[in-house]
């Protein structure tokens, strides 16, 4: 009889442990659900005229090695490239891995900025407000549109923004605002 009791007790304990596990927070390591209901905030700086040249779910093959990564949480990763002439524009377009046909940019009057990010596959970003900080050395880009329950699966996204050379000439870095967090990203060539 003691052997039956021991076996029954082990089964009872295991059942309780399984039930407790089912009742806990259901988080899969491959897919995390995050609720983001934070309101958009106004971007600091002078609003500027920009044109979204392209937006595609691509990133450079070496993005994880070459990107800028925040040292403190959240550990967002970004890449920002400035193309000031036709050769640089074509090189950056190829480097970022765009599949669509390369749109024309008037590189005599404008510079092209390539902004590489990770986004949720279920809540993709929209390019929000773009401005230049008062000292003129930082392009400020707001990533907007992430609302509701979103997966944290880090899918690729690259935006190409066209900006007048006069407004662009002193820009040395890009400030990306994502979920109320500002990250200063150095430009790579």
Report what the structure shows.
- The chain is of the alpha+beta class and 189 residues long.
- The protein has one domain (33-188).
- It is 22% helix and 39% strand.
- It is built from four helices and twelve strands, in the order αβββαββαβββββαββ.
- It has helices at residues 2-23, 63-66, 86-96, 165-168, and strands at 33-36, 46-47, 50-56, 68-69, 77-83, 110-119, 126-132, 138-144, 148-151, 155-164, 173-178, 181-188.
- The strands form two sheets. Strands 2, 3, 4, 5, 6, 7, 8, 10, 11 and 12 form a ten-stranded mixed β-sheet that branches. It has a two-stranded antiparallel sheet with strand order 1-9.
- β11 and β12 form a beta hairpin.
- The protein is elongated.
What's the layout of helices and strands?
Blueprint: H1 2-23, E1 33-36, E2 46-47, E3 50-56, H2 63-66, E4 68-69, E5 77-83, H3 86-96, E6 110-119, E7 126-132, E8 138-144, E9 148-151, E10 155-164, H4 165-168, E11 173-178, E12 181-188
Parallel strand pairs: 5-12, 8-11
Antiparallel strand pairs: 1-9, 2-7, 3-10, 4-5, 5-6, 6-10, 7-8, 11-12
